[in-house]
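WARN no homologs supplied; continuing
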Amino acid sequence: MFVATYFSISTTCSVVIAQPSAGPSQGESCLLYVHIPFCEALCPFCAFHRVEYTRDKALPYFEALRAEIRHYYDRGFIFSNVYIDGGTPTVNAPELAEIIGLIRS
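OK structure emitted
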C-alpha cells in the first residue's frame, strides 16, 4: 500500500512508507520507514524527495500517513524500529508528535 493511494505530492513523485509483498510471520517485527517530504525551503544540494511545505499539502499527507500506519497495524505488523526521514520531519512538530504517538501505541 502506498500513501499515494490517498494523496499524491506531485504528478511525478509519490511517497512510499512500506511495500510489503506479504504480511509478517506471526510475531515477527520489522522496521518502519516514514518519509516526511516537506521543507520550509528547498536546499539546492539535497537529493532527497522533498517539496516546499504548505499547510494545504501537508495536512492531507499526514492524515493519509496515519491511515497507512493503522492499515499495517491491522495487518499484524509489529514495528520494532522506526526511521523517520525527509525533507524536514520537524517542519510540523505537532503532526510529527501525533505520528510518533500512533506508532508507539
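Helices lie at 55-74, 93-104.
OK
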